[in-house]
């Protein structure tokens, strides 16, 4: 089969395709469906047996009875369940908490202005694009 400039080999008897999607999940990929429809077949006949209605009914054949309400449960003479005990993790505690990805980043010093967007200006000659240490007029 040709799809998006690539060629895929489909084996209908072996239930496999060279894109390996059919091999992985047991459901025919679009290349396999095209090959099946070319031979006037039904793609549902080529699906793995676990996806069919009979397998679903076989899995749920023994009736699962709903649970009764909590006040009708059997009383057991065991102590009540407690949460696990707190265990302090080794290592130094973090100074700041971890921020979420969508949370805006706060500057480390709120009183300092950012440098981006402002052109460099030389304190020696007043020209733009360089500073005093790289000035040619000094």
TrEMBL record:
Residues 85-98 have a biased composition (Basic residues). InterPro entries: Znf_CCHC, Znf_PMZ, Znf_SWIM. It holds the Pfam family SWIM. Signal peptide: none annotated. Keywords: Metal-binding, Zinc, Zinc-finger. Residues 8-40 form the SWIM-type domain. The keyword Nucleotidyltransferase does not apply. Residues 121-137 form the CCHC-type domain. Residues 83-112 are annotated as: Disordered. Coiled coil: none annotated. It comes from the Eukaryota. PANTHER family: MUTATOR TRANSPOSASE MUDRA PROTEIN (PTHR31973:SF187), POLYPROTEIN, PUTATIVE-RELATED (PTHR31973). This is Uncharacterized protein LOC107880370. The gene is LOC107880370.
């Amino acid at each position: 089969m040709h799809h998006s400039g690539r060629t895929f080999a489909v084996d209908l008897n072996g239930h496999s395709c060279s894109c390996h999607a059919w091999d992985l999940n047991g459901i025919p990929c679009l290349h396999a469906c095209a090959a099946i429809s070319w031979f006037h077949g039904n793609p549902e006949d080529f699906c793995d047996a676990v996806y069919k209605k009979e397998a679903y009914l076989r899995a749920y054949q023994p009736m699962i009875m709903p649970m009764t309400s909590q006040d009708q449960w059997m009383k057991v003479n065991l102590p009540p369940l407690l949460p696990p005990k707190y265990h302090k993790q080794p290592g130094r505690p973090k100074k700041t908490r971890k921020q979420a990805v969508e949370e805006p980043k706060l500057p480390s010093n709120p009183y300092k202005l950012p440098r981006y967007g402002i052109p460099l200006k030389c304190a020696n000659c007043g020209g733009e694009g360089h500073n005093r240490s790289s000035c040619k007029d000094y």
